[in-house]
Write a structure and sequence with these properties.
Strand content: under 5%
Radius of gyration: 26 Å
Structural class: mainly alpha
Helix content: 55-70%
Largest sheet: 6 strands, parallel
Length: 571
């Protein structure tokens, strides 16, 4: 059936991509295939080597680039300038060893088979880079982003991303396009200057901008502001010769200096998931099954060789900075694939007349090897025996001085209370919990909550509880009680539904202004108990809450009297 001319081409391509990607990935997931491999399989089916349903691959590739940008943006937020400084020695020493050794070994092997040194070095550079997308997905799935393995792996990825800037400038000279190394040095100096300027702005303009946006308490405006920082910074850095992907990472570092980091990640995450899926579909579309069938022995041999090179170089980097044996093994397995920046570098080399291994069909060979490595890495890196149980190579004391998400990770994660909202009743409940030594998480999108937390020394998770990431960091899935005590009835019902979606056994307590609102909440079966303003005061709400935690009545009365005598939490 012909597509009407009124339908934009991008809509057609996205519809085919999303439908095919969802169906194929879902079918493969039923037999234990990880989603990433399912997306690549979908791309192979709908791409030129398959059914040819996608006609404009460039549109898909542009969408995939957005996915990589958003992923690196959230990576920058997660790691913050504080953590990057703490890990500087790790990613400098380890990164130089890993990238240098991988490049050198791969180049030496290629030259042993008669490949010229320029092409051999180019091939080594392709092999030296690992996939940020794959590694972060694996680390997030294992909740190991801040584990020793996660911290070391991401430190190497940061170095690789920075090194890719220099690689993009150097590769044309390997093809004979430019022999002027002075131009390369100038370009690198310019890139360094723009990076320094971005980091300076992160300390001044960005925090003020976000505080201004937060005062509006508009979810839409906040999301647009975050995306504007991401894409605006990426564009500005690209004008100075720095990769847009590195620019997105720097934008994340800028946002990480504020107290709204966790909320920013949560808001961007749905977009990141969508566009990252497109990235893997686009890789699958480049894969030619017919070429692989004709050259299976060559491709498999290169896959095994690449795995060995990546294992040796990564293990050496981990060992040199004296990481535990378990971290050495796990990080080597996690990074044993070819990265998304390798695809960018390969395109630069192709334009300069340099092909992987000097093969006439080197691009097809490279893509086949990369796809198999990504699939292999996605499976092997999920072995639970690889993952150390320690949380981070960064001390908890220094982590506590970091961003809002660091504080959130220190919140209780089991058998605690989650208080949603910020107001006199929420503050009273928080004070009662502290006096009764009951663990709790306080979640709010009200910017005043941050000032209150800084002034009183308490902890607040800044974000929207309806976002998956915020709900997870608040520990909603493992909480005993959820409270909505400063919200409108419709917001209370929404919060109750979210709480029960994450934890069907959770006890939900709420506050309502009048009995009619309380009756509506009770009739819906979402709320276990509602205290109304006409029925009782804050002391009754505190008593009900502490009662669910088994606090004796005598202690409850003492806590209530203490809280209500505190001027800050007077109703």
């Amino acid at each position: 059936m012909p597509i009407p001319e009124s339908v934009p081409p991008l809509v057609v391509e996205l519809a085919v991509l999303l439908v095919a990607g969802t169906l194929i990935a879902a079918l493969l997931a039923r037999v234990g295939v990880v989603p990433i491999v399912g997306f690549m399989a979908a791309g192979a089916v709908i791409g030129p080597g398959g059914t040819g349903l996608i006609g404009d691959i460039d549109l898909v590739n542009q969408s995939a680039d957005i996915g990589v940008m958003l992923l690196l943006f959230t990576l920058g937020i997660e790691f913050s300038l504080t953590r990057v400084r703490q890990m500087a020695s790790i990613f400098l020493a380890g990164g130089v060893v890993q990238v240098g050794l991988a490049t050198g070994i791969a180049a030496a092997v290629a030259m042993a088979f008669g490949v010229g040194w320029r092409i051999a070095v180019f091939t080594g550079l392709l092999v030296s880079l690992s996939s940020t997308v794959i590694v972060l997905n694996v680390l997030a799935e294992k909740q190991a982003t801040t584990s020793p393995t996660g911290s070391f792996s991401v430190a190497l990825l940061i170095f690789q991303d920075l090194a890719s800037v220099a690689m993009v400038l150097v590769v044309p000279s390997l093809g004979g396009e430019s022999g002027n190394w002075a131009d390369i040095v100038v370009a690198l100096a310019t890139a360094g200057a723009i990076v320094a300027a971005v980091l300076l702005v992160s300390r001044t303009a960005v925090p003020r901008l976000l505080r201004l946006v937060e005062r509006s308490q508009s979810k839409e405006v906040f999301l647009l502001a975050i995306l504007a920082i991401c894409f605006g910074t990426a564009l500005l850095t690209s004008l100075a010769g720095v990769s847009i992907f590195l620019g997105a990472f720097l934008a994340g570092l800028m946002v990480s200096e504020g107290r709204s980091a966790a909320r920013a990640i949560a808001d961007v995450m749905p977009l990141q998931i969508l566009f990252t899926a497109m990235f893997f579909v686009s890789i699958g579309m480049l894969f030619d099954p017919a070429y692989f069938a004709r050259n299976a022995v060559l491709v498999i041999g290169l896959v095994l060789s690449t795995v060995v090179i990546k294992l040796v170089s990564t293990a050496a980097a981990a060992a040199i900075i004296r990481q535990p044996r378990r971290v050495v093994i796990a990080s080597a397995v996690v990074l044993a694939q070819i990265g998304e920046f390798s695809f960018v570098l390969e395109r630069v080399g192709e334009n300069a007349g340099v092909l992987p291994l000097g093969l006439t069909d080197g691009t097809d060979t490279f893509i086949a090897v990369a796809v198999l490595l990504i699939a292999l890495s996605s499976f092997s890196a999920r072995s639970s025996r690889m993952w150390p149980q320690h949380r981070s190579i960064v001390s908890s004391a220094t982590a506590a001085a970091g961003t809002g998400q660091d504080l959130a990770e220190q919140e209780p994660t089991r058998d605690h209370a989650v208080v949603n909202g910020f107001g006199p009743r929420a503050r009273a409940i928080a004070a009662a919990f502290e006096l009764a030594k009951i663990p709790y998480s306080l979640v709010s999108i009200d910017p005043r909550a941050q000032s209150w937390a800084a002034r009183t020394g308490r902890k607040v998770l800044y974000g929207d509880i309806s976002r998956q990431l915020i709900a997870e960091r608040a520990g909603l899935r493992r909480a005993r009680i959820a409270l909505a005590v400063d919200s409108q009835p419709s917001d209370v019902a929404h919060f109750a539904r979210i709480a029960r979606e994450h934890n069907p056994q959770i006890i939900v307590l709420a506050w309502a202004v009048n009995p009619d609102d309380a009756a509506d909440l009770d009739d819906g079966g979402l709320v276990n108990h509602v205290v109304t303003e006409r029925q009782a005061a804050i002391d009754a709400l505190i008593a009900h809450t502490l009662g669910y935690f088994g606090v004796p009545q005598s202690q409850t009365e003492t806590v209530t009297r203490t809280v209500l005598h505190c001027n800050e939490v007077q109703p």
